[in-house]
């Protein structure tokens, strides 16, 4: 049951048709004020961001190798890093610090480019969606997030 002291945030998203009956939910976000596109993915266990994009955006950002198990559709053989980013914002929802997984998303962006879709900079996964009690309203195209007030 939600806390009486929680605040509800509504983030608009677009439904991006990849092919018939195949969609991604894409929301606008920012890191350190820089705009980016993120996929809302309930099937992703962790939120992750494109390693090359983050390296370009935050060249001084400290990263460490991810020694945990990397599991993705079709492969478990890929390099990933761990880091903490500052000022991740989706709509009015702001996280001053957020732990992320960094990986090469060039395969996603190559496919998006071939379909004339916008670049994807990150994926909001179930770690984030569970923590903030996400509700996806497909008819309104709104992601609702809940956070306890401090």
Question: How does this structure look, described?
Answer:
The chain has 150 residues and is mainly beta. The chain has a single domain (6-148), classed as Acid Proteases (Cathepsin D, subunit A, domain 1, Beta Barrel), CATH 2.40.70. It contains 3 helices and 10 strands; from the N terminus they run ββββαβββαβαββ. A 6-stranded mixed barrel has the order 2-3-8-4-7-6. The longest helix is centred in the last third of the chain and has 9 residues, at 106-114. The two termini are 18 Å apart.
State the gist of this model.
The chain has three helices and ten strands; from the N terminus they run E-E-E-E-H-E-E-E-H-E-H-E-E. By secondary structure, it is mainly beta.
Helix and strand topology:
Layout: E1 6-19, E2 22-31, E3 34-40, E4 48-50, H1 51-57, E5 64-65, E6 80-90, E7 93-103, H2 106-114, E8 122-124, H3 126-131, E9 135-137, E10 142-148
Parallel strand pairs: 3-8, 4-7
Antiparallel strand pairs: 1-2, 1-10, 2-3, 2-6, 4-8, 5-6, 6-7, 9-10
Structural class: mainly beta
Full CATH superfamily name: Acid Proteases
CATH architecture: Beta Barrel
Question: Uncertain runs with pLDDT below 50, 5 residues or more?
Answer: 70-76
- Assign the CATH class: Mainly Beta
- The strands making up the biggest β-sheet line up spatially as 2-3-8-4-7-6
What percent strand? over 45%
* Count of helix runs: 3
- Rg, Cα atoms, Å: 15 Å
Helix content: 10-25%
């Amino acid at each position: 049951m939600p806390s009486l002291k929680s605040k509800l945030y509504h983030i608009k998203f677009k439904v991006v048709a990849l092919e018939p009956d195949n969609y991604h939910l894409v929301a606008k976000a920012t890191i350190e004020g820089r705009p980016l596109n993120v996929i809302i993915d309930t099937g992703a266990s962790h939120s992750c961001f494109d390693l090359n994009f983050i390296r370009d955006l935050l060249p001084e950002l400290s990263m460490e190798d991810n020694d945990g198990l990397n599991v993705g559709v079709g492969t478990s053989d890929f390099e990933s890093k761990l880091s903490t980013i500052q000022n991740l914002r989706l709509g009015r929802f702001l996280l001053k610090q957020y732990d992320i997984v960094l990986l090469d998303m060039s395969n996603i962006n190559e496919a998006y480019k071939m379909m004339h879709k916008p670049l994807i900079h990150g994926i909001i996964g179930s770690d984030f969606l569970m923590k903030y009690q996400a509700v996806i309203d497909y008819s309104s195209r709104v992601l609702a997030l809940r956070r306890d007030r401090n």
